[in-house]
Amino acid sequence: MHPIRIAALAAALAAPSIAYAHGFAGDRFFPATILTDDPFVADEMSLPTFTRDPTGPDGSQIFGFDLSISKRLTPDIGIQLSQGWQHLKPLGMPGVTGLTGFSSELDYQLFQNGPHEAAAMVGLHSSWAHTGRVQALGADDFTTLSPLIDFGKGFGDLPDSLPWLRPIAITGNLSVDFPTKTESADNPHPNNFNYGFAFEYSLEYLQHHVKDVGLGAPFDRMAPLVEVAYSTALNRGQAGQTVGTIQPGIIWAGQYIQIGAEAIIPLNRASGHGFGGVVQLHFYLDDIFPNTFGRPVFGQ
Amino acid sequence: MSSIGVLILAALLAAGFVGKPALAHAFLDHAVPAVGSTVAAAPKQVRMFFTEELEPHFSGATLSAAGGQAVATDTAVLDARNPMEMVLSMPPLAPGKYKVSWHAVSTDTHRTEGDFTFEIRP
User: Fold this and answer.
1) Quick check: is A41 in a domain?
2) A-chain residue closest to B51, CA distance
3) How many domains does chain B divide into?
4) What range defines the domain where residue A176 resides?
5) Which of B23, B109, B117 sits opposite A160 (nearest CB)?
6) pLDDT per residue as tens digits for the range A93-149
7) Which of A19, A26, A208 sits opposite B28 (nearest CB)?
8) How far is B31 from chain A (nearest CA, A)?
9) Any CB–CB contact under 8 A between B119 and chain A?
10) What is the ipTM of this complex?
11) What residue of B is the nearest CA neighbor of A289?
């Protein structure tokens, strides 16, 4: 190999962002989960995410189409920008469509621990006022700021005597909503405590790190998982009221893209009834554009 | 753009990226001896097959015994005809359990690492 090429590679490899890009902590690859967030700043894009929510408590039907893009500003600081579009069909009324609101998130990678397959990230999520159809779709007419912490842990460091448990990984999100208005048109906006988890069983980890059980493509890149996300109001007359969903599904992670599909099961009557579903196509921009858009804007 | 247009664009992008030359993170595809396997005779080499082409100067592997002590081996090298294959040659091994720890840098400098065990039957 040419000495200049070796020197260039050595310089690139000295950077921590190259060591662990999207979703890696040591042996563990964490796929980008759909309902909850994975604990990594990254260069990724979800386009599209199609959602058919369970029937709402008031009998309404919602179909959603969402776009989200994540970009590393530095190796440890990233932003996420998200925009949704929705078709709402209230019971017995004509359907309406439009934007549901724009949100952004600023994240900082706290740590990535390879030997223990652990990672954590803190951030500030912002849902911006008047960026969707407020009257027709119920988009927010107020901004909500939500400090958050995301974390993940793989169980590959369990003893060899527990081989079938080593592919398990858990990720989680904790956040609190701080709306900038306490009410709109007599509807209170409480502070909410949001908590979500993803329980994953990585067949990729099983096949390539624990035991070759003969899985071939596409099964050796799949991860069955169950995601849950709850939101509990803390005040303003709604304290203790909880809504949420449970979403069992599967994610296939390839070299450049991943595809995920999950069923949506409402947690309780206040969360809706029946079943919904979501499918997502997700791009690893750091792999697709490794020398341009897939790198941090500043630093290596 | 309509939602159908966006969907078509996404599908085209996906199709294009799937067909691109290898440039992504290198995952271990399979190994000989197989990951987690038990073999009757001591292998002379561990051969690891990856999903991407590797950079030879920044990729490698080591071997350790069940107690964690390092086992002296040759330096891991890439197969001359297949830059997606890493070969770790080793001296005759006694029966027991061994761990292979590898690190791989694909040609776009993405780094991955991993380990797996195999056992030699007494």
Assistant:
1) yes
2) A255
3) 1
4) 21-288
5) B117
6) 999 999 999 999 999 999 999 999 999 999 999 999 999 988 888 889 999 999 999
7) A208
8) 8
9) no
10) 0.78
11) B23
122 residues of chain B, pLDDT tens digit each: 444 444 444 444 544 444 444 457 889 999 999 999 999 999 999 999 999 899 988 899 999 998 889 999 999 999 999 999 999 999 999 999 999 999 998 877 788 999 999 999 98
Asked if residue A123 is part of any domain, the answer here is yes
CATH number of the domain at B55, please. Answer: 2.60.40.1220
Q: What is the pLDDT of residues A265-277, one digit of tens each?
A: 999 999 999 999 9
Domain count, chain A: 1
In Å, how far is A12's CA from the nearest CA of chain B? 7
Contact B114 A209 (CB under 8 A): yes
Q: Do A9 and B116 count as a contact with CB atoms less than 8 A apart?
A: no
Sheet architecture: strand order including B77-79: B28-32, B45-50, B82-89, B77-79
Per the CB < 8 A criterion, the answer to whether A223 and A31 are in contact is yes
Within a domain: B31: yes
Decide if A213 is inside a domain.
Answer: yes
Cβ within 8 Å of residue A254, ≥6 positions away: A221, B18
Does any CB of chain A come closer than 8 Å to the CB of residue B110? Answer: yes
Give me the DSSP letters along A84-131. EEEEEE-TTS--EEEEEEEEEEEEEEEEEETTTTEEEEEEEEEEPTTS
What are the φ and ψ backbone dihedral angles of A275, each rounded to 5 degrees?
-120, 150
Q: Which domain holds residue B100?
A: 24-120
- Pair B42, B55: CB distance under 8 Å: no
Q: What is the CATH number of the domain that holds A81?
A: 2.40.160.40
How many Cα atoms occupy the beta-carbon half-sphere of B120 within 13 Å?
15
